[in-house]
């Protein structure tokens, strides 16, 4: 075997090993690439009790119940399914019913999501793409979700030419 053939063989073998390593890493991270799961996605995947994941959706109006020692119960929905959430701690200032939320934790044996972290959406116009897509799919999308607060058709600059 000539020197050039050995070099090409080594480069080809190195690329093959690198490709296999990349495929294994991406396969192992496949489930954790998603930033959060909606209640429907959690039900479809049959998430086992005790497995940690992020749950995202909208806090159901009328579901917020505050208990003793900072205990809070509420429900997260995505339009088709609702999942009860239990959290003990201080909620973010922007947390309220009807707003988007992402909770980190795990399901217990009875199907209740026990959260150890709750993140509220930070801006009234922000909505994660997955939540927006889920709302559109379920028919709960409102055209004013993406609108800036205070923006109206009358205040928008006119399009076209003027003489």
From TrEMBL:
Function summary: Heme chaperone required for the biogenesis of c-type cytochromes. Transiently binds heme delivered by CcmC and transfers the heme to apo-cytochromes in a process facilitated by CcmF and CcmH.
Gene Ontology molecular function: any one: metal ion binding
Coarse class of the protein's main subcellular location: membrane
Listed name of the protein: Cytochrome c-type biogenesis protein CcmE
GO cellular component, one term: plasma membrane
Keyword Metal-binding listed: yes
Subcellular location: Cell membrane; Membrane
